[in-house]
Amino acid sequence: MNKKVIIITLLLLASAINAFSLSHQGTIPDVERIFLNTDREGYVAGELIWFKAYTLDKNNIPNDLSKVLYIELIDSVGNSVIQSKHKIDNGFGSGNIYVPSSIQTGRYLMVCYTSLMRNFDHKIYFQKSISIINSHVKVPNVNIANDSKNPVNAPLSSFSSTNNLVDLQVRKKSFPSRALVKVSLQNKSKDIMSNISISVFQADSLNLIENLKLENVQSYSSDQKMVFLPELEGHISYFNSTDNQGITAPVYLSMLSTSPEIYSTTLKEDGSAMFITQKVYGNHKMIIQAIDNSIKFEQISPFYGSDSSFRQPTLKVPPSFKNTIERRSIYTQVQNVYSKDSIFLQENAEIKDAFYGVPDHVYWLDNYTRFPTMEEVLREYVEQVQVRKKGDIYSLHVWDNSHQHFFESNPIVLFNGIPITSMNEVMKIDPLKIQSIEIITSQYIMSPQVWWAGIVSLKSYPDYQNETLIAESQSVIEFNGLSPELKFYSPDYSTNNNKRIPDFRNLLYWEPTVILEAQKAKEISFYTSDIKGKYIIKIEGWTSNGQFIQAEETFEVK
User: Fold this and answer.
1) Interatomic CA distance for residues 315 and 135, integer angstroms
2) Contact 515/166 with Cβ under 8 angstroms?
3) Do 419 and 526 share a domain, yes or no?
4) Cα 323 from chain centroid?
5) 3-state secondary structure of 323
6) Based on the number of CB atoms within 10 Å of its own CB, is 494 exposed (0-12), middle (13-18) or buried (19 or more)?
């Protein structure tokens, strides 16, 4: 990308965020709110919670404002036990949360919000109660007691469930094991209903939570201060320096990776720094460093965290549920063993290039005679890099292809994605661990404050990809990116290839994105499992004019 375009884009983004902050102070409940539905309401340890989220305006119309959804699982005393971040695109997001074997049996609150909503009272966050059973932990032998005085509140505008807009039909009411089930969905409205979800699950006794209750959103004063910026382009990561003395300096955040990714910003006088980290999935080690300053940093959590006001009534399970709990727990463990690779298969991840794009030159060192020092490798093979030494101090100079001479200042040198500021440290790297060297022979501008006289990127062999050189001025952090979305596992029994593998699925089907065009029908299909019993087909979603739709149908597996 042209360096002028990069600068203009960054300035426009900053201007847009500032303008939004000024124009929407105190009006977040009218601008954005969350609705979320799950595949069911009851789970056992080892299962996945599948969900569909909607960001809505005051008329319950999907908006395209925030790009990141935050979800926390809060236990009965208000502790946040699971935290995750998920991508939102065009007002919709979907994903899954794994229920770990370490979790306690109980009633949990799924609390959902965006960064924009953090500027207001947590009462506007979407909240949904679910039950989780862990068969490895003893549960109390008392009766179920759902507390009607503590309903599950979803802070949205009032609306009523509309069931007559979709005709949900299953062709038969009874099926054998591993049989094909076809379900017809008929849209009877004049609206296009986008991103409606459908789930098919066993109607066992573990769905202990009452149906969702919805209340009006509260009003807030217009003088509310904007502290958390809306995430218009992607996740915003916040940091504070631990020893800053009113210094303003360029700062960059880099990921330990063979596909280098670097983000740049400016350290403020108050010691704060923020980065827009787009499309970073999963957990990574990252390095944050203030250029030319030995300042240490700590990451600020983007989550709301524990709060005793989120307390839930205790989940109480009677002795009669013992067999149901044990059976479902065993089925889940068996299913995870035999179908682990299919159940936890990630959607096709986007293959990311290095932040600098396609390099101007690439040197694969196996194509050359190996030298024992990095200085020899650079001098003998890499024509676009000039090695200079003054006394005991090394410097590197990349060829400036635009002006046909070598840059006078050092380039940015990356080792597995991490910047190395000392050229003497570069010379200490073992070249026998390096697989390739990539060169950018032009000035690279990260921001108006940060630019580099070319780029030299050293990439090691896979066995050494976790190695790097960490300077005292660099802070290492564990960075939790967006949660990767798994692909829902649904076997195909049209052939007999899987007949010897047990099928103990109690969730037969989940699809978060079912689009029904106006007055048209759509058919979905799936196979039953080896578990006999009653099953529920449930659809939930929104019309394009803000009407909530919910419908159910049942069938049996005999």
Assistant:
1) 14
2) no
3) no
4) 36
5) helix
6) exposed
Neighbours of 342 (CB within 10 A): 16
Pairing of strands 548-557, 174-175: parallel
Q: Indicate whether 140 belongs to any domain.
A: yes
410 within 8 A of 424, measured Cβ to Cβ: no
Whole-angstrom Cα distance, residue 215 to residue 156?
6
> Helix (H, G, I), strand (E, B), or coil: what is residue 327?
helix
Distance, in Å, from the CA atom of 123 to the CA atom of 101, rounded to the nearest integer, reads 30
Domain enclosing residue 366, as ranges: 243-295+351-480
Q: Is the pLDDT of residue 154 over 80?
A: no
Which neighbouring-strand residues pair with 413? 420, 456
Tokens of 312: 């839930």
Tell whether 341 and 394 lie within a shared domain.
Answer: no
| 349-378 pLDDT tens trace | 555 678 888 999 999 999 999 999 999 999
**Using an 8 Å Cβ cutoff, are 36 and 110 in contact?**
yes
Q: Are residues 128 and 117 in the same domain?
A: yes
Q: Which element (helix H / strand E) includes 244?
A: none
User: At a CB cut-off of 8 Å and minimum separation 6, what does 61 contact?
Assistant: 544, 545, 546
Phi and psi dihedrals of 302, rounded to 5?
A: -85, -5
Say how many C-beta atoms besides its own lie within 10 A of residue 378's C-beta: 23
User: Residue 104's domain is classified under what CATH number?
Assistant: 2.60.40.1930
* Alpha helix stretches (DSSP H) within 381-476: 423-427
CB 39 within 8 A of CB 206: no
Q: How many domains does the chain have?
A: 2
Q: Which two tokens stand for residue 297?
A: 């940093």
Asked if residue 438 and residue 411 are part of one domain, the reply reads yes
Report the run of H or E that residue 377 belongs to, with start and end. Answer: helix 374-380
The structure's pTM equals 0.82
The 10s digit of each residue's pLDDT in 308-322 is: 777 777 777 777 777
Q: Which residues, in sequence order, are CB contacts of 97 under 8 Å at separation 6+?
A: 48, 49, 51, 71, 73, 82, 84, 483
